[in-house]
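Box 3.1 — From sequence to structure: TEX30 protein
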Amino acid sequence: VKVTIPFGNKYLDAIFSVPEKKPICGVILTHGAGGDMNFPHLVSLAAYLASRGVLCLRFTCKGLNIAYRTKAFKTVVEYLKLSDDYKLSGVFLAGRSMGSRAAASVIHQLSLEDDDDFIQGLVCLSYPLHRPKLQSKLRDEDLLFIRCPVLFVSGSADEMCEKQLLEGVASKMKAPKKIHWIDKANHGMAVKGRTTDDVMEEINAQVFSWLRENIELEGK
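Predicted structure (token representation):
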């Protein structure tokens, strides 16, 4: 279902992937610095989750300014929260690369406003912990303040997320967290000798099983 979400004097393009049965929870997904909501990994994950009962809302927000992206993400969260069509008790925020930074930033901001009951967790796909070859400056400021469960799915050969550094940040985080390493994958989740579909199947299954562990399944 295509929708447009008002954002300031503009609109954000978004697509709902709606499960057949009444969804138990929702996931809001967004893309990295390049691309849009039709980035193949997001399309694949949304379809996978929707087929298993999870409502997915993915949206496009162009712009390389992290504050702008965060504001857009927050607008989408409010939109879903107030939606009459899909009454959800909670939602997980998910993003790829820069999108996951924006998601982390939104959760940090909402926690300061004491309005984080609606947010049930964070999924970071290829979290860009540092710029390539610039490991001294970590983008961990939001992660350390988050309290809700966090799942990281990163490639062990990601040039923007060195393994030991992410594990170091995770050890300092107060939130319940899990890291799933995709062996030999780079920042784009490409692995020599494996098809994209094969890698996506691994990522999608990880995300879904983690969601299931963290959803308060009502009446199930």
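Summary of the box: The radius of gyration is 16 Å.
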